[in-house]
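Q: Predict the bound structure with iron/sulfur cluster.
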Amino acid sequence: MSNDIKFQIRDLLKQRNAVLLAHNYMRDEVQEIADITGDSLGLSLEAARTDADVIVFCGVHFMAESAAILSPGKKVLLPRPDAGCPMADMVTAEGLVELKARHPGVPVVTYVNSSADVKAESDICCTSANAITVVRSLNEDELIFVPDRNLGRWVGQYVPEKRFIYWDGFCPTHERMTVEAIKLKKAEYPDALFICHPESAPEVTALADHACSTSGMYDYCRTSAATKFIIGTEAGILYKLRLENPGKEFILASPALFCPNMKLTSLEDVLFSLQTLSPVISVSEAVRIKARAALDRMLAVPRD
Ligand code: 13P
Ligand code: SF4
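A: Predicted complex:
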């Protein structure tokens, strides 16, 4: 990849007073030139704090929507508008409204990997990093958890006093990681710790030494005394893990851990997006206000 395109992007970012965000699963070269890398919500919160006029979100659609919800005065660009999230698409606002009607008064906890329309129909959001704390903060002893059944079941283990009604969604990328693949890797690297994302299937998470969000993985691997890790989440995370921990070894748990949507955005797409100030991701004001309330309720929950 020529440095020329990177130079053009950095130059246009300055001209447009734009900030370039990249999710932890993006291609290496996109993470390399980003102003900020991180998890989906962390990125949107950081972007809202900057005085940039334009947010270029290298991630998937629901993430750019979260940025639009939190930064109504800024223009949010998603260089690849076709970068969606199959799990977020597994629940619609209409479907959630129907489920709520069958369980009146039961609060809805929605993972941030969801559309703005779905967030707007929810009581409170959560991320994989704070889901346990969010669920524990509820007064009710029953809740609807949307859309990730795997994250929901993982949280449920830590909050056995509450009854969960799970939506049947899942991340196809994490679900492709099989028990057999993990057992093989563990046999190949017996002295490595296995760390996985709670979007993984419960049988896989059960084999993990530690399950956490992508931001949690950076902290865990940096502070752990261990030097070898089998990583059970999307391959893009390896870029920064290796950069930040040159003395440690990181092994991808399964070759299936590639999210095609997360790999769509190229430097050419970023450049085109900055040149044309498109495609813009926006959320109607009525939906934005309701979705924002669900995010704000999450942000108001005291951290553990
Ligand atoms: P986090 O970075 O929030 O853990 O995200 C996981 C994920 O699958 C995003 O698509
Ligand atoms: Fe969606 Fe899974 Fe891809 Fe994340 S890794 S964008 S949850 S399909």
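A: The first helix runs from residue 3 to 15.
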